[in-house]
Design a protein that fits this description.
Helix content: 10-25%
Shape: globular
Structural class: alpha+beta
Low-confidence stretches: none
Number of domains: 1
Order of helices and strands: EEEEHEEHEEEEE
Oligomer: single chain
């Protein structure tokens, strides 16, 4: 039984400015392959559901397949993508009508919770080797 995957948007609680997922400089379905689902409520919330080209079947193991060619990002697109990651943008997808979510554990109690969507990326700070001091034990 096929299961639909829908791309929606990327959003951040820091900026309040969502973007369509397919505007990102990543793998995109061809223009003529897009199936768009919109109703008034979705439009008012800024949602733009676009059917993903992935073939997902319930209860079946399907080997990995290529669904589109990667997009070669320009320098400006790469900088824009970096700024979205720095501003904690999350990706919102829906699988069979259910929102994707990412599990995490609270630091205080260790309780497992879920945040909607998944992060577009993370920022990792690398220590400056000039400022690293040797410590003796």
């Amino acid at each position: 039984m096929p299961v639909d995957l829908w791309y929606n948007k990327v959003y951040s609680e820091k900026t309040q400015l969502p973007f369509e997922y397919i505007r990102l400089p990543v793998c995109r379905p061809a223009e003529d392959e897009r199936v768009v689902r919109e109703n008034l409520g979705e439009i008012l919330r800024g949602d733009r559901f676009i059917k993903a080209p992935h073939q997902i079947m319930f209860g079946e193991n399907i080997p990995c397949t290529t669904v589109c060619e990667p997009v070669k990002a320009t320098k400006a697109e790469a900088l824009w993508l970096s700024s979205l990651i720095a501003n904690d943008y999350k990706v919102e997808w829906y699988l069979d009508g259910l929102p994707a979510a990412t599990p995490y554990r609270t630091t205080s109690s260790g309780k497992k919770l879920y945040e909607p969507g998944f992060r577009l990326g993370t920022v990792e700070t690398v220590p400056d080797p000039k400022n690293v001091r040797a410590r003796s034990l």
